[in-house]
Prior knowledge:
Blueprint: E1 28-29, H1 40-52, H2 63-82, E2 90-93, H3 96-111, E3 117-121, H4 130-139, E4 142-146, H5 156-164, E5 168-174, H6 186-195, E6 199-203, H7 215-218, E7 222-226, E8 237-241, H8 243-248, E9 259-262, E10 267-269, H9 283-299, H10 301-319, E11 325-328, E12 339-344, H11 349-358, E13 361-362, E14 364-366, H12 371-377, E15 382-386, H13 393-409
Helix pairs in contact: 1-9, 2-9, 3-4, 10-13, 11-13
The structure holds pyridoxal-5'-phosphate.
Pyridoxal-5'-phosphate binds at residues 95-97, 125, 127-128, 174, 178, 203, 205-206, 226, 228, 237, 369.
Amino acid sequence: MRTASGGRAGVRADFPIFARDFGGRPLIYLDSAASSQKPEVVIEALAEHLRNHNANVHRGVYALAQEADAAYDGARARVAAFVGGEPETTIFTKNATEAINLVAYAWGRENLNPTGAVLITQMEHHANIVPWQQLCRERGAELRYLEVDERGELSLEQLDAELARGDVRMLAFAHVSNVLGTINPVAEMTRRARAAGALTLVDGAQAVPHMPVDVAALGADFYAWTGHKALGPTGIGVLHGRREVLEEMQPFLTGGDMIASVDFQSATWNELPYKFEAGTPPIAEAVGLGAAVEYLERLGMERVRAHERSLTAYMLERLAQVPGLRVVGPPEAERRGGLASFTIEGMHPHDIAELADRGGVCIRAGHHCAQPLMRCLGVGATARASVGVYNDAADIDALLDALLAGREVFGLSGA
Ligand SMILES: Cc1ncc(COP(=O)(O)O)c(C=O)c1O
């Protein structure tokens, strides 16, 4: 069987974009944390659905509509099984951001008041900060933060101390930080939160595409992720919820499909998961995501993680050879996902990314939608290189060549 360490001749050949030529150079893509590339099987699944099975779902009696139903529901079952979830508690959204907003609105408005607090962390993406800010402002509740230490990690002692205050209603945190790479101890954190009577939401946007995830074993009340980072299309995200909590919650968006019945002045709600899927859902996108998780399953998520961990170790080792370069986050590859954010003394991160691009290497620069974290790190921005199943050591070597050449352009000396 081919593995994710199959290199250029292996997995990479499954992704048509790598056949492109950028002015005589191949594509060196080290920006999977922003969005992954798509394998042919996903592109084909989307096209095949639209070509041969396209109709709206849940409304038609004719054969074609039933094919669309089967494709949509089949995709949900596949996506749920991929992470150990159940179809009825697996809700399709537009992206991870919408999944988190769904919880902040639908759970938060009913359950948060001025006596309660929401606890998040300093390493969150804006998608897991701003919805809680809005909710807390609206409900008069407090928003507090767990701190990130100098290793880029959280403290379980601080978590305990916060939970001991007795007012935390929701603990929301990233499984893997999109800047630091830190892998948080999810099962331990959800266990402590539950013991203190708080619900938990885990933002798995940077975890699900890169490592085995079992949402049942992790024990969170909500687990959110996004399709486009997991080899799937844009326009689809996933929220897994604990059944009892979802049953109790009011809907987020309202309208067609999410109702059981509608009268002139009132309505009743459809069963799970449809209660949370108002309007025509992302049907073809779900089919594409189903194909993406099938592809990842064929590679094997243990192998994907092993491949990306060894590439990350190699990346950290090579980056350490660049004078003036500082990587943020845990120094050990096994404690982080497949990314490294860094600064280089004397160069702005945007210049680093632009000079990398001259060497044909795609990396990202900026605040990575984590401005509060940038403040904690004492920087305005970082450059970030992130790997996926299709990368290999030659990509990291190309990044290094580009960074060293970039330093020369800036007239920076050797050591
Ligand atoms: C940790 C994390 N959470 C949430 C998101 C938001 O994902 P989306 O834009 O697909 O909603 C991202 C995307 O960068 C992310 O890295």
